[in-house]
Amino acid sequence: MAENDSHQSKKKSFWADLAKLILFLGIGFAFIYFFLLKLSPEQKSSIWDSFLHANYFWVIAVMVCVTIAHFIRALRWLLLYKPMGLKPGLNNTFGAVIVTYMANLAFPRLGEVLRCALLKNSDNVPIEKSLGTVVTERCFDVLAFGVVVVIGMLAMYGQAKEWLFEALSQKISSLPSLGLVTAILVAIIAVSIICYRLLRERMLKFALFRKIDSIIQGALDGLKSIFHLGTRNTILFIIYSALIYLFYILGGVVILQAFPETQALGFGAAFVLYLFGSVGMTISQGGLGAYPVLVWQALSLYGIGETIGLAEGWLLWSSQQVIVILLGLAYLVYFSLIKKKVNTIE
Question: Of 339, 331, 136, 332, whose CA–CA distance to 228 is shortest?
Answer without folding.
Answer: 136
